[in-house]
Specification:
Blueprint (H helix, E strand, L loop, with lengths): L1 H10 L6 E3 L2 E2 L7 H7 L2 H10 L4 E2 L5 E3 L4 E5 L8 E4 L6 E7 L5 E6 L4 H15 L8 E7 L7 H14 L5 E8 L4 E4 L2 E4 L4 E4 L5 E5 L7 H9 L6 E2 L1 E2 L4 E4 L10 H6 L2 H8 L10 H14 L3 H4 L7 E5 L6 E4 L2
Parallel strand pairs: 1-10, 3-14, 4-6, 5-15, 9-10
Antiparallel strand pairs: 1-2, 5-8, 6-13, 7-8, 7-9, 11-12, 13-14, 16-17, 17-18, 18-19
Length: 325
């Protein structure tokens, strides 16, 4: 059903329903600079976010969204109080929220699988908002900076274009990215905000970092290292289950050789923005490469019988714990 809906959505491009500063748009902004020039209100809302102190968020009540993942939930979900993602340099964190019900979805997008991810996020939020006639669907974008190769701008345009051609009215309420999310350090542009959390009860967005990024992190990172383009929906809020997989990838050629390289080599070759990566980047990449080395055929060794990895919130510790079926 979702696939048919998405195909129909992208065949009919006559419906343009992106709302900027309360006005329905005929054309999508070509870049973030044009957005800020034509709609200065987004400078003001971005500035409000940038002065909020960064919070360090622990694992209790957190649902962390990694690169090429999305998750959706509702305010009355007893397992999740904060949706969060960080380690964003050239990527973009996308939040879709229904103002009436508080249903919210978050994705961490790097340029792959954007059309399908946008379709899924809107559908999830609409499903979770059923029964709430009042409210609008709001879009909030955080991340990206003025990187040398304009990767951030490419992702911004792809995301805006996907929402613009979706047959549901989308109201952009926050865009903190590009030049507004950039400061100079040692002559090099750096992102200001690397991550955000959203309070699922109130809808409040704040800059945040997350030392604990949830279970199965090397496996989850292995997806985009091996070139799987899909953005994975990782959460079932009706059941309170964090769900990873199933998916498969081809054996990564030269993984042994990659693991023999220096940290600097891995940083330079496997990052779109090596100068500004957080210090744990290489450690995370090495862990994912080692996982790929040890599990060259995950359909056989990881997802036996094609079963996902399920995790449920432990009532006593508040941590995600494996569920055995």
């Amino acid at each position: 059903m979702l696939i048919v809906f998405c195909i129909e959505m992208f065949i009919d491009r006559t419906i343009m329903v992106l709302v900027l500063n309360g006005v329905l748009q005929e054309d999508c902004p070509p870049d973030s600079r044009a957005l800020y020039l034509n709609h200065p209100v987004y400078r003001e809302t971005a500035a409000q976010l940038l002065v909020v102190p960064n919070k360090v968020i622990g694992p209790v009540g957190l649902l962390y969204v990694l690169q090429r993942e999305l998750a959706a939930t509702v305010p009355h979900d007893k397992n999740v109080t904060i949706l969060g993602s960080d380690d964003v340099t050239t990527c973009l964190i996308v939040v879709v929220r229904h103002s009436g019900s508080g249903a919210v979805a978050m994705a961490h997008l790097d340029g792959s699988g954007i059309d399908e991810a946008v379709c899924t996020m809107i559908q999830r939020v609409q499903e979770l908002a059923l029964g709430y006639p009042e409210g609008r669907i709001e879009l909030q974008l955080v991340g990206g900076f003025t990187d040398a190769h304009s990767y951030s701008e490419d992702i911004f345009f792809s995301v805006m274009s996907s929402f613009h051609k979706h047959p549901v009215e989308i109201d952009l309420t926050l865009a903190c990215l590009g030049e507004l999310n950039t400061h100079m350090r040692g002559g090099i542009p750096w992102p200001i905000v690397y991550g955000i959390g959203i309070n699922t009860k109130t809808g409040e967005i704040f800059p945040a970092t997350f030392p604990d990024k949830g279970p199965d992190q090397p496996l989850r990172l292995a997806r985009h290292l091996t070139g799987i383009p899909q953005v994975l929906d990782i959460y079932d809020c009706a059941l309170g289950l964090l769900r990873i997989g199933p998916f498969n990838y081809e054996p990564l050629r030269g993984v042994d050789l990659w693991l023999e390289q220096t940290d600097e080599f891995i940083l330079q070759q496997l990052s779109t923005s090596p100068e500004v990566q957080p210090p744990h980047f290489v450690m995370q990449i090495r862990a994912a490469l080692k996982y790929i080395q040890d599990n060259q055929f995950p359909a056989i060794t990881v997802f036996r019988d094609n079963r996902p990895h399920y995790f449920r919130r432990d009532e006593h510790t508040g941590l995600w714990c494996p569920v055995r079926y």
